[in-house]
Amino acid sequence: MTVVSAKDLDLTFETGDGPVHALKGVDLDIAKGEFVSFIGPSGCGKTTFLRCVAGLEVPTGGTLTVNGMTPDEARRARAYGYVFQAAGLYPWRTIGGNIRLPLEIMGFSKAEQKDRVKRTLAMVDLAGFEKKYPWQLSGGMQQRASIARALAFDADILLMDEPFGALDEIVRDHLNEQLLDLWARTEKTTLFVTHSIPEAVYLSTKIVVMSPRPGRITDVIDSPLPKERPLDIRDTPEFLEIAHRVREGLRAGHAYED
Fold first, then answer.
1. Average pLDDT of 136-157?
2. CB 109 within 8 A of CB 71
3. How far apart are the C-alpha atoms of 219 and 42, rounded to whole Å?
4. How far apart are CA 214 and CA 194, in angstroms?
5. What is the percentage of the chain residues whose pLDDT exceeds 70?
6. pLDDT at residue 43 in the model
7. How confident is the model at residue 48 (pLDDT cuts 50, 70, 90)?
8. pLDDT at 88 over 60
9. How distant, in Å, are the alpha carbons of 142, 163, 181, 193, 258 from that of 88?
10. Is the distance from CB of 195 to CB of 42 less than 8 angstroms?
11. Is 251 left (phi over 0), alpha (psi -120 to 50) or beta?
12. Which residues contact 216 (CB under 8 A, 6 or more apart)?
């Protein structure tokens, strides 16, 4: 089943300095349950594509559907949870209160809110931290709380915009392992933006390599790696071969001319 489908997608921003071509001719289908990473240089349209899927930007050409609907219809149907680069937790709310916020807005009962907060905290290994405040948690724990908030209302699609980019490598490795385990357990269709080749290869069932602006897709790689992936899989020839192909796709992207 196709969850996200883009056909000849274009997006041009009109600015005071003239038009900015963010996306050009993007064709991509994402199936239910896939973990798809988007990788490319800064400004290549990775986040812009995610925002189009979320209905936060409106394409200027081509078509884009999410669960067979327009992105705006999918947004109103609460089809996705969004995890941003920064955790974005309200400092005056407890961790439980932050996770509860979308549930309050959506009108869930107090009993259902309590149950969902407890369940999602356990899913991201933060059980027992419900009454803590964001400043009492490490950066990695705050991002896990942000993921729990996106999971709380049980949307089918998880949109993640470089959520681990600001974290050190040790914490990032740990969260990559946890995210892969979480994805295996929930089977959410996940769209994940990253600048890290090892992260993209380790996490994904499919890797989308993008060119510098205007963002085009230079390669789509279906990963042959098994679903269960210990961190040391990154030392295997199979892993290194995929990483090499991603690197070559990034190089090829620079050959495009505007």
1. 91
2. no
3. 17
4. 18
5. 98
6. 81
7. very high
8. yes
9. 9, 11, 23, 17, 35
10. yes
11. alpha
12. 23, 24, 25, 26, 210, 253, 256
* pLDDT value at residue 15: 82
Contacts of residue 183, defined as CB under 8 A and 6 or more positions apart, other chains included, come to 35, 190, 203
Decide: pTM greater than 0.70: yes
SS (H, E, C) the chain: CEEEEEEEEEEEEEECCEEEEEEEEEEEEEECCCEEEEECCCCCCHHHHHHHHCCCCCCCEEEEEECCECHHHHHHCCCEEEECCCCCCCCCCCHHHHHHHHHHHHCCCHHHHHHHHHHHHHHCCCCCCCCCCHHHCCHHHHHHHHHHHHHCCCCCEEEEECCCCCCCHHHHHHHHHHHHHHHHHHCCEEEEEECCHHHHHHHCCEEEEECCCCECEEEEEECCCCCCCCHHHHHCHHHHHHHHHHHHHHHHHCCCCC
Instruction: Give the model's confidence band at 247: pLDDT under 50 very low, under 70 low, under 90 confident, else very high.
Output: very high
Residue with tokens 């980019």, as numbered in its chain: 165
Domains parsed from the chain with CATH numbers: 1-29+49-77 (no CATH), 79-166+182-189 (3.40.50.300)
Cβ(59)–Cβ(9) below 8 Å: yes
Q: Which residue has the higher pLDDT, 253 or 10?
A: 10
Could you read off the pLDDT of 209-239 as tens digits, one per residue? 999 878 899 999 999 999 889 999 999 999 9
Residue type, 67: N
CB 113, CB 94: distance < 8 Å? no
